Sequence to fold (262 residues):
Amino acid sequence: MMMADRNKTAIKTLVQNAPHPLHYGITKTGKSTLRNLTSEEVAYLRLSSSSSSSKILAPVLTLLLQKDIDNSKDALDKAHEMILGVNETNIAEAEYAATYRNTSWSDDHPLDTDQDMLHSILHRLEGRFIGEGGHTGYDNAKYWLFGGSKMLDAVDENHAVRVRFKEYVLRNYNYLREMGLIVEEEEERRSYEIIAGNNRTRKIFLRKGEFDWIRFYDLCEMSQEKYSTGGEKVRIWEKEWVEYIVELQVVEIDLIVQYAVT
Fold:
């Protein structure tokens, strides 16, 4: 129980202190941030030569939830590289791929649903900062939410984390209803436009009864801005919404933590 409470406290701190910039050192300098692992990080990460998501989620979450993340300028970059398949056995290969780009790295290290999910959240935490492809973290978060280059038409609602998250939302829907997180019965569908790579965009359509992940991400953006701008006079209902959205993000990431260690 105490460990669970510590996790939730760390998650709430991570969320409330967002946005967190990514520096993309491996792309800009050709040097992986995993070369800078501290002895403590090496001890608790135990990086695996496997690229399976079950080996990646737990150490990535450990990096994200370390208590001094705001004083560790490359913690998110380490987590980002690990999500993309970099580990202690292939750092040189990853640095070559990041430097010369035209390699088979992406094909050799495809991301599965678990990795896409955490990759998306990582960019959501990046927030308004400009990152991959010259896009904001918010835009890249939505891109990876729908599978990145796989260009999925829908989020995998059958994933264990998302099933439990939607159950939580529905149990607390009395005060979440007006946020529009569920496409209502009277709506035929909702549509959004997200980035699709190569300076293109594409349409995403949601049908009635579906959980609206894009709306959730938009509300996370609002929540980040309320916490980061400081001193702004906010109406009471907006303050309540910020608290609810922070709560939902804590629940979501905590569910991923539970999923990763089972």
